[in-house]
Amino acid sequence: MDLTTGPAATPPGAAAPGAGPEAPPVPDDPAALRVVPARHYARWAAAAAVAVLVAQFAHGLATNPVWEWDVFRAYVLSETIVQAVWVTLQLTAYATVLGFLLGTVLAFMRLSRSPVLQTVAWTYVWVFRSIPMIVQLVFWFNLSALYEELGVGIPFGPVFWSVDSNSLIGTIGAAVIGLTLHQAAYAAEVVRGGVVAVDHGQLEAAAALGIPRLRQIRRIVLPQAMRAILPTAGNEIVGLLKGTSVVYVMSIGELFYQAQVIYGRNGRVIPLLLVATAWYVVLTSLLSVAQYYVERRFARGADRTPPPTPLRRARQFVRTLRGAAAQRDRSVVPLRFLGDSR
Amino acid sequence: MSEVMVDVHGVRKSFGPLEVLRGVDLRVRAGEVAVVLGPSGSGKSTLLRTVNHLEKVDGGWVSVDGELIGYRRAGDRLYELKEKEVLRQRTRIGFVFQDFNLFPHLTVVENLVEAPVSALRRPRAQAEETARRLLERVGLADKADAYPRQLSGGQQQRVAIARALALEPKVLLFDEPTSALDPELVGEVLDVIKDLARTGTTMIVVTHEIGFAREVADTVVFMDGGVVVEQGPPAAVLDAPRHERTRAFLSKVL
Ligand SMILES: Nc1ncnc2c1ncn2[C@@H]1O[C@H](COP(=O)(O)OP(=O)(O)OP(=O)(O)O)[C@@H](O)[C@H]1O
Ligand SMILES: [Mg+2]
Questions:
Q1: What is the pLDDT confidence band of residue A314, given thresholds at 50, 70 and 90?
Q2: Is the pTM above the cut of 0.90?
Q3: Residue A9's pLDDT is what?
Q4: How many angstroms does the Cα of residue B43 sit away from the middle of ligand 2?
Q5: Distance of CA A60 to the CA centre of its chain
Q6: CATH number of the domain that residue A296 is part of
Q7: Residues of chain B found within 8 Å of residue A306, distances taken between Cβ atoms
Q8: Residue nearest (by alpha carbon) to ligand 1 atom 24
C-alpha cells in the first residue's frame, strides 16, 4: 500500500494536496480564481500580414480596368448565361445520380461472392478509369459511326425494334452517358471504400438477427458507409460539376461553352471567363453547404454529443462577443465565461 | 425430463489446416442453462457460432428444437439451405456478441425494432411496444431514444440482450457477454442473464465468470482442444473435476 520510500514520518492521509509546505496556496473560494488568456503575438503578426496581402489583392480586383466589371455585370445574369448554368446543372445532376447508382451496383458486384460479377466490375472500373473523359465523350458523340442502329432483341439473335443511334441519344444524351460511365467508375471505388470501412461485426449482427440480405445492406451497411463515402463523394460531385465544362467539345450550350461563344463574338475574354468562374464558385459553394448538412445527418449516433451547426456556432460567437464587451474594462476573464464559450 | 432444445452432434470444423472443433457433442434441454468454459482458443466461440450457422460445419450437425440448422435432410442426404432460409432459422436463435455490435446509427429502440419488423414482418407499432417493454425489463426504459454510443458498455450489452430477445427466440447464445466490460459493469449484465435464467429461457453462455457458472448453470461444459472434456452439474465439474485438464484450468482461473 505505502509507496513512499522516505522516512515514514507522515501518517497516512496527511499527504493531501495543499497540506505540505511546498504546495501552492489554494484560496478558499475557487470562484474567485481568474484566468488570464494566453497572448499569441506571432499569430497576430502573421494574421496582420496576410490581411494586408488580401486587401491589396481585393483592391486590385476592384480597381484594375482589365477585369471590366461593367461587362461582367452585363452578362452574369443574362438569359443566355442563366440558361447555360441550367444546362450545366442538369448535366451534373443526371451524371451524379446515374453515376452513383451504377457505381453502387458495381461496388456490390465487386464485393459479391461471384467471381464473374467481381471480374466484370473490376474490368469496368479499370477500363473507364483509363480513358480520359474527353476522349470518351468524343467517342459517344461519334457513336453512330460505330453502331448505326441500336436495337432490342435476343442477344446474338433477331432484332425486334431498332432506332438510329444518334437520334435516340442526342447530343445531351451522349454527354450524360459519357459523364455517367466515367463517374460510375470512380463512384464504384468510393462506395466500395465506404462499405469495407464498416465494421464486420455489423453485418454479422444483422445476419444473426435474420435481417434479410438487401435490408442488411440498405439499412445497416450503407448508412454507416455513408460516413466514409460522403466526403469523397462531395469531391467527386464538385469535380463533375466543373468537369461538365469539357462537354464544350460537343458544342453543348453549357456554361463554359456559352462564355466562349460570347467572348468569341465580342472579344471580352477576361470578364466572360470571370462570369463562368463566378457561377462555378457559387454552384460549388451551394454543393458544399448541402454536403455539410447531409454529412451531419449521416453522423447521427457517431458522437456522444453532435457538434453545433455553423449557424448555431455563429450565434454563440455573437453572444460571446457581447459577453466580452461587458467584461472589457476588466483585464481578466472569469472562469465561468470560458466555460460558456466552449 | 423436458425435450432437447439444442442438439450438437459430432460437430467438426477446420480453418484451413487448423482443426478447431474435433467432434463436439452437446445437448441442452428446454429451459436449461449451459455454461461453456475453457481456455482461450479451445473453440468455444466457434462452437457457439455453428449453432446459428454463422460458421458452417464440416461434419456432424446441429439442430434447434428438432430443426436441422443450415441443412435440409432428405433420405441420407443433407441439402444446404438458401441464405433466406438460414436467416429465418436465425430469428429463432438469439446471439449476444462480446463487443455488443449494436447498430450505432440507430437509436436504442430502433435497434430493437429492426429485426422483428424486417425479418418477422411484425407491425412497427407492435414491435415498438415490445421493444419498450423489453427495455424496461433490462432497466433501460429511459434510454429508448438514445444512440448506443451515448450508453455505457454495460448498458449497451443490456440493449444487445434486449435486441436478441425482441425476436422471442427459442434459445439465447452468449459469447463472453461481459469480457469487454469494466469490472464494475459486469454485475449489471450478469443480473439480466440471471433473471432470464430464472424465467426459464434456454441459454448457452460462454464465459470466464466461474461464480456465475456455479450460481446459474444447470450444466457446465468444459472444452479444451476442440472437444468437450467434461460436462455435468456445476457442483460436479467445478468442485470435483474428474479430468486433469479441467483441474488445471480451474486452478488457473479460480
Ligand atoms: N475465421 C477464422 N479463421 C481462421 N482461424 C480461426 C477463425 N476463427 C477462429 N479461428 C481459430 O480457431 C481457434 C478457436 O477459436 P475460438 O474463437 O473458437 O476460441 P475461443 O475458445 O472462443 O477462445 P477465446 O476464449 O479466446 O474467445 C483459434 O485458434 C482461432 O485462431
Ligand atoms: Mg471466443
A1: confident
A2: no
A3: 44
A4: 7
A5: 31
A6: 1.10.3720.10
A7: none
A8: B40
